[in-house]
């Protein structure tokens, strides 16, 4: 979840925002005191991931800084390929500048961003290459499968959270997502956009919400596959361009 969001009663708690246009190139330096210094990843609970899977999870996860018009928020994401990052639509909403930070401390500008109207997903293109990662699973995880969430809760250091898939149900946010996955992996504000990994380290979903009972919700990888195939990501507009609307 973006770190400025608050948990509300109900199943899921995140607002859904969208726009159109292109995020401008990032000028100037970023604040240095908002995000903690990079520390050793806290991967004490890797779930069913192998040591190689843990290493790949470290490398694929990114922290996303959204510098908006009057606020700075953080979220999580993951590298789909060398220059593409997947995250949530609400993580990039109301942005003026976007930047990703890798597990080893590299700060990389996002040169463009696109979102979908039918799911809480966003796609960023980066100015520099990212580390190659295992990629997307071909099908959704089955109920009962062990999963591991990897991301940057509260904009802090890289962490993992293990759990299992509890089931699939209709999206309760009314975001036209269709069926979404629910797991007992613990997430927090700033975890939105985190990769949900199967035991082989491939992505089986994207975290987009949590509830007050400690459950996390994910966009299934099948939905991501469909939207990528349809090229359904439309460019977003800088908050500066909409400020006068």
Automatic annotation (TrEMBL):
Gene Ontology annotations of biological process type: proteolysis
One Pfam short name: Trypsin_2
Signal peptide: 1-25
Keywords, ordered alphabetically: Signal
InterPro entries named among the record's database cross-references: Peptidase_S1_PA, Peptidase_S1_PA_chymotrypsin, Peptidase_S1C
This protein's name: Trypsin-like peptidase domain-containing protein
Domain of life of the organism encoding this protein: Bacteria
Coiled-coil stretches noted in the UniProt entry, renumbered to this chain: none
Species of origin: Georgenia satyanarayanai
GO molecular function: serine-type endopeptidase activity
């Amino acid at each position: 979840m973006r770190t400025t969001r608050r948990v509300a009663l109900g199943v899921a708690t995140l607002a859904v925002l969208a726009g159109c246009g292109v995020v401008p190139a990032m000028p100037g330096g970023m604040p240095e005191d908002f995000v903690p210094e990079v520390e050793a990843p806290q991967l004490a609970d890797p779930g069913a991931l192998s040591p190689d899977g843990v290493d790949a999870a470290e490398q694929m996860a990114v922290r996303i800084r959204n510098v908006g018009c009057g606020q700075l928020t953080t979220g999580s994401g993951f590298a789909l390929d060398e220059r593409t990052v997947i995250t949530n639509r609400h993580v990039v909403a109301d942005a003026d500048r976007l930047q990703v930070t890798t597990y080893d401390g590299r700060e990389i500008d996002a040169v463009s961003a696109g979102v979908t109207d039918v799911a809480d997903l966003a796609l960023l293109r980066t100015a520099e290459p990212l580390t190659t990662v295992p990629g997307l699973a071909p099908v959704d995880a089955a109920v009962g499968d062990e999963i591991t969430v990897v991301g940057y809760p509260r904009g802090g250091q890289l962490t993992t959270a293990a759990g299992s898939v509890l089931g699939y149900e209709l999206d309760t946010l009314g975001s036209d997502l269709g069926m979404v996955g629910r797991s007992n992996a613990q997430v927090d504000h700033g975890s939105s956009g985190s990769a949900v990994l199967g035991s082989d380290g491939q992505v089986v979903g994207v975290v987009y919400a949590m509830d007050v009972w400690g459950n996390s919700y994910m966009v299934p990888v099948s939905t991501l596959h469909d939207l990528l195939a349809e090229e359904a990501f439309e460019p977003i507009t800088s908050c500066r361009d909409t400020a006068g609307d």
